[in-house]
Records
---
Amino acid sequence: MKYKIFTIATLLFVTTVVLSQTKSAATLRLEAHQSSGNCDVDIPTDNPDWNLEFEVRDLTGDLAPNDYYTRRDPSSVLKVNGKYYVWYSYSLTNGVGKVSAWDLNDLYFATSTDGYHWTEQGVAVARGPEGSYDHRSAFTTEVFYHDNIFYLVYQASDTEENLNSNNTVAMAYSSSADGPWTKLEDPILSPSSEQSVAFDKNTVHDPCIIYFKGKFYMYYKGEGNESAVCSYDTQIWGTSNKQVKWGVAIADNVTGPYVKSAYNPITNTGHEVCVWHSGEGLGIMLHQDGPEYGTTQYSSDGINFEIMGKVDFPLKNPRNSTYPEAAGLYRSETSNNSPVSGVSWGVSHVLNWGGTYGSWMYIRRFDLKNPPASIEDIKKIYGVNIYPNPATDTINIGNFNGGTVVLYSINGAILKELDASQIKDGIDVSAFTSGIYYLLFKTEKGNYGTKVIIKS
Ligand code: AAL
């Protein structure tokens, strides 16, 4: 009997501890803002790798800007048999009966051999027949490749009323990136509409599946009825108080069932979901809607994310900025060489509210300005040889034929900027003190860079 009481007491204690711990690190930070009324966000200054700056450029071919078409919310980019693939929401900008840019959408896809010039291949997943969960619109998709199968997860809306709220997340799969795609019978995620205060009570958006620690983590954005705390819009625009957060739902099998984490929400900010593998954990980048806008974050458990750095973009006018909005990351096999090499490049969308045919959006490319790579990868991927490392008097650069090389201090100061013809005899570094420096290669086709060591 004594033993039983002890067991029950222990159980109660453990349950209480577990229950009281079901708040993510991001929720605890939000509560601190709430109770102090202070919206300042603490961004560490000692993780230079996590401070990101992007360059953006328009694509050519079928994905060149054209206001007749609306292409938005692109998936990640995959390289399959030497070709790049991307999937996205597609509609005619002035499509008959459309009530918003993501209404009456289908999922289209395009391919490219160089990542700049794209050919649209047509529909991948079309919205379904009357009565189906995606009858009104199929939009905002993400691709996931696992065990030789491709999966497209996307937002689904059955009716016009459920276009902005009550979206569900659906999934289609194929053994080929070119399709054909088979839809699962039912959506794999729905809003927590039965709960009065859930962060995702009204809708679930922007699904993204990541294989992590032997399970399938589906990150998504939720919207509820909570009033916003330190909202981005209020601080930056002085207007609405929209605040959205991300959740995660975890499954043992890729097709589900996906169980929402008890720690949700796992961010307190972030419009479109953007997650990448970073070392043993995961990196994320948060756009607007919440106090931690413009931050990069890291988590070792996929649940508790800590602020690591910031994305450099003009916060006052982010809609015209180089921030990759609705980023679709290039998922390469070598994308885990540095904490942020998962965001080296990809595609994002540009919003144009209003135009000849109405509001329209197009997809463009973004590149990390100073993408970190290892010296070995630069040789493997670009053929450029950097030696010796550490260097004492000279850094030699072999096989770099066109573009500019910039040598930075670790704090970002430009120390030298030389074109290909000026580095024939190497870069003279004899005047620099011992330490870590950064070499950036700027070429017509994008930038890449690496850390180098100078030993005086
Ligand atoms: C986007 C995404 C989702 C929303 C709408 C289309 O920014 O968050 O996809 O439903 O806007």
---
Amino acid sequence: MILTIAIDGPAAAGKGTLARRLAAAHNLAYLDSGSLYRGTALTLLRDNLPETDAVVVAQKLRPELLTDPELRAEATGRLASKVAAIPAVRAALLDWQRDFAKRPPGGKQGAVLDGRDIGTVVLPDAMVKLFITASDEARAMRRFKELQEKGEAAIYARVLEDMRERDARDTARSTAPMRPAEDALIIDTSALDADQVFSLAQDYIAQKI
Ligand code: C5P
């Protein structure tokens, strides 16, 4: 039996931390699907290409790019959410994500994918679906602290504004908008630490399998 866990939610809600911990606990492969959109955006930025080239870039995306440190830059995230609204870009990245879940790399027994539309579009039959969210302010504060720790100059109000803008785009787009699947467990992490979120998710997974 292949265990598939779909985790969706807005930026900086704690999806990635939870996904990595669940992958380690259940011996699953992990795919951060945002890195595919970020990789597409980063190629456009680096090669100075227009947004209209995003589909071709997504079709030819190179896996090496997906670990590039520049992937996490704020400018990359901003452009990623713009190209992610283009239906043909999403279509170009769909098989990659589904193949990863169906044939998890490294001989793993299943996969955890996180993103915005994993439980609704990419893997509607996933055994476990989680939607991880938190207040705008809690998420912006986490992102702000992360940037400070990396030694990057950051202004909290600007981080909050950027995040709201990106969430609005992800929620309003007509193709695969960010929303919880009907059968997802919603976890608000505003007042929870990573251990508490992990333990809620583990209890839910135990019920499901
Ligand atoms: O999760 P992350 O912040 O890395 O995602 C970057 C952008 O990629 C998001 O703002 C969103 O627009 C897009 N994305 C998406 N669908 C996913 C994952 C990410 O549209 N499954």
